[in-house]
Amino acid sequence: MPYSATVFHVLIASPSDVPNERQAIADGLHDWNALNSQEKGYVLLPVKWESHSAPAMGDRPQAIINDQVVRNCDMLIGAFWTRLGSPTGLEESGTVEEIRWFLKQNKPVMLYYSKQPVDLDVIDTQQLEKLKDFKKSIRDKGIQDQYSSIDDLKQKLSRHLTIVMRDLSVNPVVDARIVRAAKESTREDDHDVDVPEPAAKKAPAKKAKAKAAEEVWLEEYTDRAFVVKGDTKEFAEELKELGGKWIPLKTGGKGWMFSKRWLTEAAEVVGVKPKLRAKPD
Questions:
Q1: pLDDT value at position 141?
Q2: Are 63 and 139 found together in one domain?
Q3: Fewest CB atoms within 10 A around its CB: which of 130, 138, 190, 263?
Q4: Contact criterion met (CB below 8 Å) for 205 and 232
Q5: What total number of domains does the chain contain?
Q6: DSSP letter string over the chain?
Q7: Is the pLDDT of residue 277 over 70?
């Protein structure tokens, strides 16, 4: 049955040593479409330079690919193993040039790094070092994860696509909230993360912050953790998305437990100062 949908062109980017991953990413996009496209009204179209570009003259090869393929895409999904790729004249490799362009445009970038064993006697150690340096240079950019097998890659990609596509519009941008949710979704297999509704739908919760702030507080729990206590119902989705765990407390009742490194972010969600009350005796 025909249906209307918004098409997102998804660039699959990688060096030459991960052909199986390239196909797995394309398969993952097709799987997402089969399960979600009709209901969500979105289609994710895999785009590869080898199938979507044509020979041309007049510029460096990567610049031609950029014009024919890269700049027409809405999202990038990349995979790496032991190589970074060959220099383009502007960047260390074509894949790097593509990724940096997407990041500069604030378009979604999802990168996956293989943890599969390698034979150090046959790999290019210089390429491996360049890859490590590149990872460090974009450590806090986009959604990044590791995978141990093709099946593991597919599972993580599926989770991340679900999270990203819940919060995208026709002009796609992945912000810090989506990145946090994606990281949490694969941090613990038994910890499912719900992504908050788009900004327009969250307005009621934001209006409620000022009213509920006096009824919510942050409290010392352990040396490494604190809890958000009080009337947190209005903030439940945001606290869960931030990584909080709703647990029974030793002092009675329930609360949202966080590592202390999330103190500032949790305080911002509920609209209070990032200060902890003393733990009850």
A1: 85
A2: yes
A3: 190
A4: no
A5: 2
A6: -----EEEEEEEE--TT-HHHHHHHHHHHHHHHHHHHHHH-EEEEEE-HHHH-----SS-HHHHHHHHTGGG-SEEEEEESS------SSSS-HHHHHHHHHHHTT--EEEEEE-----TTTS-HHHHHHHHHHHHHTTTSSEEEEESSHHHHHHHHHHHHHHHHHS--SS----HHHHHHHHHHHH-TT---PPPPPGGGGHHHHHHHHHHGGGEEEEE-SSSEEEEEES-GGGHHHHHHTT-EEEE-TTSSEEEEEEGGGHHHHHHHHTS-S-PBPPP-
A7: yes
Kindly tell me if the per-residue pLDDT of 196 is higher than 50: no
Q: Which residues pair with 256 in a beta bridge?
A: 228, 246
Same domain, 118 and 212: no
Domain-embedded: residue 1: no
* CB environment 151-184: b (16+ within 10 A), e (fewer): ebbbebbbbbbbbbbbbbeeebebeebbbbbbbb
137-157 residue pLDDT tens:
998 888 999 999 999 999 999
Selected residue with higher pLDDT from 169 and 32? 32
Look at residue 275 and tell me if it is in a domain: no
Q: 230 lies in which domain range?
A: 200-270
Domain check: are 14 and 67 in the same one? yes
Q: Are residues 168 and 77 part of one domain? A: yes
Q: Are residues 95 and 128 in the same domain?
A: yes
Are residue 140 and residue 238 in the same domain, yes or no?
Answer: no
pLDDT score, position 223: 87
Residue 280 lies in a domain: no
Q: What is the mean pLDDT of the chain?
A: 82
